[in-house]
Heat-inducible transcription repressor HrcA
Amino acid sequence: MLSERRLEVLRAIVQDYVGTEEPVGSKALTERHNLGVSPATVRNDMAALEDEGFIAQPHTSAGRIPTEKGYRLFVDRLAGVKPMTAPERRAIQNFLDGAVDLDDVVGRTVRLLAQLTRQVAVVQYPSLTRSTVRHVELLSLAPARVMLVLITDTGRVEQRVIDCPAPFGETSLADLRARLNSRVAGRRFADVPQLVQDLPDAFEVEDRGTVATVLSTLLETLVEEAEERLMIGGTANLTRFGHDFPLTIRPVLEALEEQVVLLKLLGEAGDSSMTVRIGHENKYEGLNSTSVVSVGYGSGGEAVAKLGVVGPTRMDYPGTMGAVRAVARYVGQILAES
Amino acid sequence: MLSERRLEVLRAIVQDYVGTEEPVGSKALTERHNLGVSPATVRNDMAALEDEGFIAQPHTSAGRIPTEKGYRLFVDRLAGVKPMTAPERRAIQNFLDGAVDLDDVVGRTVRLLAQLTRQVAVVQYPSLTRSTVRHVELLSLAPARVMLVLITDTGRVEQRVIDCPAPFGETSLADLRARLNSRVAGRRFADVPQLVQDLPDAFEVEDRGTVATVLSTLLETLVEEAEERLMIGGTANLTRFGHDFPLTIRPVLEALEEQVVLLKLLGEAGDSSMTVRIGHENKYEGLNSTSVVSVGYGSGGEAVAKLGVVGPTRMDYPGTMGAVRAVARYVGQILAES
DNA sequence: CCCTGGCACTCTTCGCGTGCGAGTGCCAGA
DNA sequence: TCTGGCACTCGCACGCGAAGAGTGCCAGGG
């Protein structure tokens, strides 16, 4: 078991290393933090911490740097979430408030997050599966051609053009539109299939084929578009990554281009609560030298999507977590308002 | 005036340097290309080329590398466009043929181009200034809250939530919807402002404020929508850039995130014909160490947008130009089909 | 039992001098 | 106008030594 002071030493090491990016030695530690003990004592503690695998030496005559296990302990037990200052919060709110539509909200969020954390930001579009239907619109383009427009409560809009098996009158269309909306408006996507199951029965025989086509297109759209989208930004911050550039940065850029990888990454990260994945805790090996801080955000109490940042394992965890949490909150508010 | 052989020497220098990334000396040149003359002669030619500013020496005892002026001459007079091989062309076509919608076409194009050229690819979405309005939908969310949904003939959908100055009844809403659509459906974006100008006059006094608000939001949306979008990809290829990483790569990443910069860049590049901008020919200084190869593409004879790649000035110009041209052609075909 | 000061030891880093080699410029001759 | 020869310049890799940072260990004191 590690004594209180040893944990304190670990915290000090992490903080210093994150600040300076250089291995930290016992003497420097006692000077920068008043631990109340001598360098020699700190050395003993460091030896113990190294035995436990929380810190390591790059080479024999260098100071210590935290291991992934060390960061893990730091995040779990030693560090809180650093709250944003009032001006920062105001700035966040102001910046997000100007958004005109969902794309804009996501775009602003990603820029904001990248700027606040000085790292790469990733923002997932509100998921369709967890959204509710605000409205379904049907437009007649031609006698046997209908456009289906699906609008979610988070502001996402999807549309499809449907070729009907038979001409479909305006009145039937209006009827279908009304019935459809009365059933699904305000309901969750997941529930839609059951809700519309028996809908064709309410129509004349000659219209049933068209109604069925429209419904199946609707369901199809729900499935297809449930496929998540996301936006990334702040890749220029990758240049602050480290010294051994090409090797570190390349796989990260590759991972960032593989949206599938990122979506899986965000998906794996628990529920809506804040998740920190450090180094090899990330399954995708291109991201083994990075940490990912993510959190769910949503318009109501429940998360509709995730956002987060990707940065070096050596990152300012409390600050990053604070920024991520704050941004998620305000984005949730913005979405709830619209 | 430069003799034929000297141009030949320049071409050889560019080719070798692009291949090896190392300054090329007179001896190596005579060995790798059979110029039919001795190294000493080549040295004289090199001295002349250097006097003219086409090549330079990094340091006294090193070989020569092309200057931007040298690349310019190479591109203008010494190099053709290397055509794609038949298998390559087939691969391009196959890859693009699978696209299901516009987003997919652009996404595939950007990936393809990045892969073919091993550089950063930029693809602009087809310009919307020539688009027409397919339908305008108005939905009542609350007594004084309306959602505007705009659908274009290219399949793009934009929506805005509008807070009305006064409550707006369902019948008024239906009236506005009908009048609006009868005027603007099928018309070009550019014509919409005049078409709706006198629309408020047709309504009761108490509704005019709301109608005006809706219209101004519509016009605003049209303007925003017409603003071009683009997609980039292959940023991981930036790692192949050179040795002095952080300094070179950072401004490029920053430029790539500034879509405005890129749009301007593509916009400046002449009409639809292939344009090559080398180093400082790019106005934006973050891209001063890069070359941009771009070309217009379109479904018919006319270009609707541009695409291209951003790479180091030391790039394989003939190959890159060949790939860019080929991809642009096939994308044009795909768009024409759909 | 834990903390402390001291001390010897280990490595990395940096500066410096040297030799090597690639590449050049110039010149005289064909 | 081209060619071979030759002296010259420099960047770079290498080896060496000094400096410095940091450690581990040990004996002594609270």
Chain B has twelve helices and ten strands. Chain B touches chain A at residues 134-135, 137, 139, 141, 147, 149, 151, 155, 157-161, 224, 233-236, 238-239, 245-246, 249-250, 253-254, 256-257 (CB under 8 Å).
